[in-house]
Amino acid sequence: xxxxxxxxxxxxxxxxxxxxxxxxxxxxxxxxxxxxxxxxxxxxxxxxxxxxxxxxxxxxxxxxxxxxxxxxxxxxxxxxxxxxxxxxxxxxxxxxxxxxxxxxxxxxxxxxxxxxxxxxxxxxxxxxxxxxxxxxxxxxxxxxxxxxxxxxxxxxxxxxxxxxxxxxxxxxxxxxxxxxxxxxxxxxxxxxxxxxxxxxxxxxxxxxxxxxxxxxxxxxxxxxxxxxxxxxxxxxxxxxxxxxxxxxxxxxxxxxxxxxxxxxxxxxxxxxxxxxxxxxxxxxxxxxxxxxxxxxxxxxxxxxxxxxxxxxxxxxxxxxxxxxxxxxxxxxxxxxxxxxxxxxxxxxxxxxxxxxxxxxxxxxxxxxxxxxxxxxxxxxxxxxxxxxxx
Amino acid sequence: xxxxxxxxxxxxxxxxxxxxxxxxxxxxxxxxxxxxxxxxxxxxxxxxxxxxxxxxxxxxxxxxxxxxxxxxxxxxxxxxxxxxxxxxxxxxxxxxxxxxxxxxxxxxxxxxxxxxxxxxxxxxxxxxxxxxxxxxxxxxxxxxxxxxxxxxxxxxxxxxxxxxxxxxxxxxxxxxxxxxxxxxxxxxxxxxxxxxxxxxxxxxxxxxxxxxxxxxxxxxxxxxxxxxxxxxxxxxxxxxxxxxxxxxxxxxxxxxxxxxxxxxxxxxxxxxxxxxxxxxxxxxxxxxxxxxxxxxxxxxxxxxxxxxxxxxxxxxxxxxxxxxxxxxxxxxxxxxxxxxxxxxxxxxxxxxxxxxxxxxxxxxxxxxxxxxxxxxxxxxxxxxxxxxxx
Amino acid sequence: xxxxxxxxxxxxxxxxxxxxxxxxxxxxxxxxxxxxxxxxxxxxxxxxxxxxxxxxxxxxxxxxxxxxxxxxxxxxxxxxxxxxxxxxxxxxxxxxxxxxxxxxxxxxxxxxxxxxxxxxxxxxxxxxxxxxxxxxxxxxxxxxxxxxxxxxxxxxxxxxxxxxxxxxxxxxxxxxxxxxxxxxxxxxxxxxxxxxxxxxxxxxxxxxxxxxxxxxxxxxxxxxxxxxxxxxxxxxxxxxxxxxxxxxxxxxxxxxxxxxxxxxxxxxxxxxxxxxxxxxxxxxxxxxxxxxxxxxxxxxxxxxxxxxxxxxxxxxxxxxxxxxxxxxxxxxxxxxxxxxxxxxxxxxxxxxxxxxxxxxxxxxxxxxxxxxxxxxxxxxxxxxxxxxxx
Amino acid sequence: xxxxxxxxxxxxxxxxxxxxxxxxxxxxxxxxxxxxxxxxxxxxxxxxxxxxxxxxxxxxxxxxxxxxxxxxxxxxxxxxxxxxxxxxxxxxxxxxxxxxxxxxxxxxxxxxxxxxxxxxxxxxxxxxxxxxxxxxxxxxxxxxxxxxxxxxxxxxxxxxxxxxxxxxxxxxxxxxxxxxxxxxxxxxxxxxxxxxxxxxxxxxxxxxxxxxxxxxxxxxxxxxxxxxxxxxxxxxxxxxxxxxxxxxxxxxxxxxxxxxxxxxxxxxxxxxxxxxxxxxxxxxxxxxxxxxxxxxxxxxxxxxxxxxxxxxxxxxxxxxxxxxxxxxxxxxxxxxxxxxxxxxxxxxxxxxxxxxxxxxxxxxxxxxxxxxxxxxxxxxxxxxxxxxxx
Lengths: 390, 390, 390, 390
What we know:
The structure is a homotetramer of 390-residue chains. The radius of gyration of chain A is 20 Å and the shape is globular. Chain A is of the alpha/beta class and 390 residues long. Helices cover 44% and strands 12% of the residues of chain A. Chain A has helices at residues 7-17, 29-39, 42-49, 56-67, 111-122, 136-143, 158-170, 189-194, 206-209, 212-216, 226-237, 247-252, 266-274, 296-307, 322-330, 340-371; strands spanning 68-71, 85-87, 90-92, 96-98, 126-129, 148-152, 176-179, 258-263, 279-282, 313-315, 335-338, 384-387. In chain A, helix 1 (7-17) packs across helix 16 (340-371), helix 5 packs parallel to helix 6 (136-143) and helix 5 runs parallel beside helix 16 (340-371). In chain A, strand 9 (279-282), helix 14 (296-307) and strand 10 form a beta-alpha-beta unit. Chains in contact: A-B, A-D, B-C, C-D.
């Protein structure tokens, strides 16, 4: 794990060492996405890049960042700055986690293994999606003792749900992220138009097929009758009947901290406190579920205000740069989830691509934090932001 | 009639079944319009797509939706969700009607018959335009007992006006929609530039030519002297002398509910209550009449507030997605009118095209409603919206 | 002079009569400008289209119109609507004047004579620029008794100034418009870049060369030494020393109403009242003088409020459509000046082009006024506007 | 030094004299930048044009100017207008300084010598960057007694810092500008992507290599071991440990006025007053350091209000036109720094290019100031601005 105080300088020295050769993993996320688009099949690119409906929420997510401006402070000693935070008892070198992204096999043959190894190399937690193309156990094995969390698409079968979290706990995952905003699948026009649903070919279902509780509910094992297995997995995939009461069931089956992902309304944040949830992730699923939804950044202040520091609030949806992260942190988030940027890194360069994206991101955050006059993420709480109207 | 609780899922399963083949009716309205544009004559495309003046109102209609954002709620049991509403004693599977669009013969040879059959197949009311290219009776016949309304361009001849509503009532139409904002024709630069006026070739005048009162006012029947018939129809087409007092005359000639379409000012809504109108349709005619007019969505809250729930308020102008519909419903509309999107479906695929557009729209609305945490349109009244300023 | 109550209908019938042939003068101003651009030399096009600096004021002028929205009223008897106004004792068929535009010879060989005749044909006042390419007397002769005003670039020679207004009064001009915002020439980058200054070839100086007072101040008549005449005309062209006190001098030399053009600040409007000016024209010179200036429409309400109806306020800068005119009128302007649109008409079709632009503009205004629920310009005072923020 | 009252007129006469030939240095900054882009290597162009991260701050800088509008006044005698100001006892012909831009050798072989001579020719202070490609003494020699300031990148070696300011003072520089916002280098994606760091080839380090204190700290002189010299220069280049206390050290080593560049927060402005700084420069380094930072113009009013006129406040970042300068001056700045525009002039035409840019800029400012109704920069304090929201 690198000393975060030198991230920006180290990166710079490394790039200087390239002496005129251009780095193969584009530094700019826009260029990186462009390069990924050239490499990927149109279906796979659209699956990751796209969102719900006319993708108005994706646009809103970005606009919200533009409206919030940083007011930097000068002449503060920043020699000993430190990006590190502590989250659920674990020290992280930077307030950044890898957002759960499913079916990474469509991006790169090494899929989640590559992303997980890159996360481990940099010391940031990897959040494995239920819909991953590599199993809970395989990812755990490749990460050894590096920090990892498990994201749960709570299936419409309690035994499978319990089994998922037990497997994750046993495999050394340190927290459970329950994604709430997926009671049904969002209306994603790019995928609908291409009739592109990797799940129906079985992709992204390995955690189901390898699950003892899931297998028990089938009449034939998936190896014998994959069609029936796929069909059943899709049937229980989403669970629109979930309510706050169900959280107790999950708590019975794991001692890990439970975070709820997808909170956008302050009253839901207050509910979460009442149900003793351990953390929240403010997110609109990167604009992939509700077209026309509030920008995640616009939802953050109300939730921070409702929670009053009782549990950590993480932020997800729309982060593309260190400045974006800084704004979310200054508005009260403890850490942020980085999503599509690392997916593009994976598409372009596999494990190395993800590592580069993470290192660039941290170096950018390090520089932006320092230049804003903050030596640590904690100091950000007193940073000055200004809201503008264009 | 399908159970609305499964619209999104059914659509998804259907599309999955295409196994990589792309659906022929584009799912995205933008793509659908593009495809319609390729198929249609430039004149016909411009006639439908265009608006008044520099089309600033069309732009304002869309921007208004972007400024209003949905704040979804989580963990609400949505298993039994239901898009259905009841309107003037009729149950509808979704809060959606097909807006009156005239002269559909320029879009497809099956014209209004195709749209009406598609509406019937899905169970949504079709609102037939006075300026249709198929007669009141022919549309009624093809729809059998499916719900339909009649839109009235109140002609400058009381006998013809009375005859129109009588015919509609006799033919099983269930409501009369009086379009108010057409005292004179809007200044539509695309049509003026192309000198494109299908009416002067007799298109869209069949309801006049087939009308006993209209025929009585001619010296020769239209079959003998079509030029004179066209000329007279155009002469009485619009009626700039109408005032609130005239509504009584209409009431005398029909027992059907009367809705006023084109209300944008709260004081006009209050007038409508005083004159015992049965419903309002907030609309700026899709930006086709007054360039520079208030966005219909921006007009909605003031009218909802003035009417205080005494009569239903429908919303028209600018709806392109489920999220748009949800926003209008959450601001107080009982149902919405869908216009141009189904016209593009008609152009691209006739009856099948309209059916697909309607099914996609309902599936999108179903998904968006559920993901916003609402199990029914009634729950939307307590949905949270946030207004943003870019 | 046509009856304004039928402008929109007449135009429509005329266009219908073209039966599919497209009108040669484009109805849309954007298309018209495009056509003019194809016809004109790049220098001439840029001279008219361009503005000061980075043309930010031109952009602001247009954005201001977009922010103000019309809220139409319904069911008002509009049979007897009337666009006419009375201004300084003259009845005008519509609240529209032709803005003073200099050197029209660069647009069309018939220059101001064509524009003046078109204005006369439609019954709208033509405001002749001091910097016209046709003389005060020649324009008067061609217009016969049609209404015309004279715009004064107040020269830096009192005798010439007095002579100009005397000539105008003698030639039947009915008002003097003093342009205030031209103490020095704006920083127009397009013209500077092209080193395009028609004045230095003598274009636009005929009113100087034909002026007895001007000729008296030369040692040789312009016909003998044109270089010296041009040089002297440019020397006295603008007068940065003018103050409110100088208005008395002008008053001594004419009995015509005096209007000040270029007022943007409410305190200047109050000054104008104190100095007994007869009318104001709110204008930023079409964005041609101060880059970064307030949009003329944004300046209008403050000035209307300061003047309190004591003298008429006209509006200039950015008007492109009937809706724009309606907004300015509803905010308190008595009439509007139309500039670039008729210049493009002149370039494309000479007198006929200008006539068509004016007729289209009035028909558009007629339709928009009626559809907004107003039967006359006076009723506009109670029209409802709404300001939106995008 | 020219009389500023005739700047606009003189420029106009000069351009008129070109008689149809186009000036070789484009008048419009946008065109000038385009021409520079064609001439320069992509690396050099991107180095100057680029900013931090996604260059959102560059965009914000420009948008802020668009939101602030000038409300001009009319009929004020402007014959004797004067752009001049007095700053630290020196009279300047216009409130404009040349911003410190490093390594100008990448733009033109004459580098800073050309810019400095152009500044001298026009009478405006040239602010030499520490990272210049020409030495403090060489620039001083070519400027003779024309006004010049020195910009300090405060090195992480007190002796070198003291030596820099002593050399500047001895060489006739009249003020020290301490750039605060460079404790570490901004995350500039264009340069990172190109791995373009001219410093590592020794460019922009001449002031280090020629410095006695710096040379003393090396084991070998730069001529013998340039690699070690470069490496050491880069090591001490930025100093993240600086705090307000360190300002006292700088004061001990120079009698020149000290200005702090990079102030954006009012509390930092108050600190600066407490530490007896002589002037402030509100700046976000042209968007090159913190992506997502507040627009410099949006930061200006808060700082003006905090400082209450006790010391001069200069403005830097985003100025492209006379109108921009006028807005900053009217918001309380005493003078502005012009950056990229003169860099493009240098690239396109060397000394002559910079001279033309400066003359054009002053002529534009002269015209805009006069047309806004102000005869001098002092009168601007009472100018009216209006803030709009688009």
